[in-house]
Recover the amino acids of this structure.
């Protein structure tokens, strides 16, 4: 059996095999990016109940959602589409902090801007167990949206850039500017402790 | 490529396809690396609600999912239509959430545990009661970074 040359392995079907695998992975692969509203939960409450810090009524923006998905904001029945504007008005408050219906101010050290008056605003969100998740997300979304818009307007006014532009920029200055805006308008969305009626 | 030299000249030479497997393999490896297999079979119907202010979820390996919704049509005969929680591949109750969180933590590099996110994928028709229960359990388990899974939209309707 003297062969003059060793026969080459036929690699012609290699491409077919590779294609087969390729198509399998192409089909199974999911390229979808998961998106969502990122929130931070408050830490668990300690066993020994501390007195909750007192918050003046004028500093609280009360949002209630009932089991029928109706929205009650500061005692008024409104639609979700109106929530953003109402919330923005409250978050910005009035510049002199004298209006009794708007939140109080507190002198705070803010990077780059020095000591300025910052609103003590808190948004309080309370929902019923029967509220639909869709409605809850809408309300959350509008509240986050209100904060984002207020911050954007402030950043535009003070630094001439939107928050996204500041975030995209990677410098010490833009980082400080971001911190400053967040310090002036901290996102305070407080969710009431759920009431357990019959465990 | 001595094989080709031996061919008699004349006629149109065949296109050299020897590099084709290489190209295909390259694509194959790309997809193999980027692919994320769906780890769980969904037992609940989940249509996530819409929102405008969404963030992208990064580092998928650090994200664990909690599904909430009513059982799929096939399972409704057995489990009814009440909203249920699904963890990994099975229905769960809220009591299972703390062990689930612990389990997920054990599988993660200790240095990255603080970065872990729990994504709540709840159906838009689900009631807040069950979602609140899940949130309370997550708080008890000290898993405070959460994400409400939503789809991006341009406008919210009333």
């Amino acid at each position: 059996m003297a062969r003059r040359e060793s026969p080459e392995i036929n690699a012609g079907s290699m491409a077919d095999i590779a294609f087969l695998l390729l198509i399998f992975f192409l089909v199974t692969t999911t390229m979808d990016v998961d998106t969502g509203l990122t929130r931070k939960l408050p830490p668990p409450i300690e066993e020994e109940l501390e007195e909750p810090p007192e918050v003046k009524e004028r500093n609280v923006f009360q949002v209630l959602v009932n089991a029928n998905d109706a929205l009650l904001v500061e005692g008024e029945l409104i639609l979700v589409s109106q929530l953003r504007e109402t919330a923005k008005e409250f978050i910005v408050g009035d510049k002199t902090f004298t209006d009794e219906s708007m939140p109080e101010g507190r002198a705070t050290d803010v990077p780059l801007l020095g000591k300025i008056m910052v609103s003590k605003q808190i948004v309080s969100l309370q929902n019923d167990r029967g509220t639909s998740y869709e409605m809850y997300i809408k309300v959350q979304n509008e509240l986050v949206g209100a904060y984002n818009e207020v911050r954007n307007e402030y950043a535009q006014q003070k630094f001439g850039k939107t928050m996204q532009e500041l975030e995209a920029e990677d410098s010490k200055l833009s980082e400080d500017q971001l911190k400053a805006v967040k310090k002036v308008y901290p996102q305070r969305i407080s969710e009431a402790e759920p009431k357990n009626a019959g465990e | 490529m001595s094989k080709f030299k031996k061919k008699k000249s004349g006629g149109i030479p065949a296109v050299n396809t020897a590099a084709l497997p290489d190209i295909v393999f390259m694509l194959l490896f790309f997809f193999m690396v980027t692919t994320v297999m769906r780890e769980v079979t969904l037992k609940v119907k989940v249509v996530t609600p819409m929102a405008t202010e969404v963030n992208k979820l990064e580092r998928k390996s650090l994200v664990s999912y909690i599904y909430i919704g009513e059982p799929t049509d096939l399972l409704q005969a057995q489990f009814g239509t009440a909203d249920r929680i699904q963890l990994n591949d099975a229905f769960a109750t809220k009591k299972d959430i703390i062990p689930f969180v612990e389990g997920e933590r054990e599988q993660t590099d200790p240095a990255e545990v603080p970065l872990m996110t729990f994504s709540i994928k709840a159906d838009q028709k689900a009631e807040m009661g069950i979602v609140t229960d899940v949130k309370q359990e997550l708080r008890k388990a000290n898993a405070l970074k959460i994400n409400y899974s939503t789809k991006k939209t341009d406008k919210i309707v009333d």
Remarks:
- The first strand of chain A starts at residue 35 and ends at 40.
